[in-house]
Amino acid sequence: MSFIIFLITSGVPGLLTYIYLRETSNIGNQDEFMKKCTLSALSILSLIIFLLFYGWNMQEYKLNNLIKNFDLIYILLTLFQTLAIIFLISILILPALFRLYSSNINKYRKSRNLTKKNSLSVIEKLFEDESHLIFIELYDYENNKLKTKGWLINFEITNQDQLNLTVKPCKNSINEDKFKDDITEKLKYINSEQNYIIEILKLKKQI
Length: 207
Prior knowledge:
Layout: H1 2-9, H2 12-23, H3 32-58, H4 63-68, H5 72-111, H6 122-127, E1 132-140, E2 146-157, E3 163-169, E4 183-191, E5 196-204
Antiparallel strand pairs: 1-2, 1-5, 2-3, 4-5
Helix pairs in contact: 2-3, 2-5, 3-5
């Protein structure tokens, strides 16, 4: 029973919600402070939901009495109910709230002639794209020396904001004149802190 209580109070349901929202790009890559705030808020939400359902199942609404009279069967039942509700909230309610919040923020910023904000980081916005083939050239920021070039297979941003790339190497660069009808975007991403520049070509996928 102590393990179940630990599972609830340690914020595991909140952590699962955070992971789901992160992996579905409803929230972007956050700094440590914002990550802790988000996790804490989601964990508190899951704990409140658990206590509400537990009180309803036990027909007892005084917190002191609930804490004194833990019942294993009701705890298990409430845990499953909490996980089910958290799952529904994660896929239905929270994404809609994030979209509404983001939409209102951007409407306000637009009215003040400010640039649009996005929940994804700049690099995520560039690479989270399954509708295009992405060709990259990675350069050293200080001496502009080419490090690698090729087709982007996958990317990962670590907790320390380090960018890891999986690339299918190519000997030659893309002939832009030859593929001008397929190239939809030509972009450059500069990161002076981590000492690299990425030149990006996005090409339409051939069906």
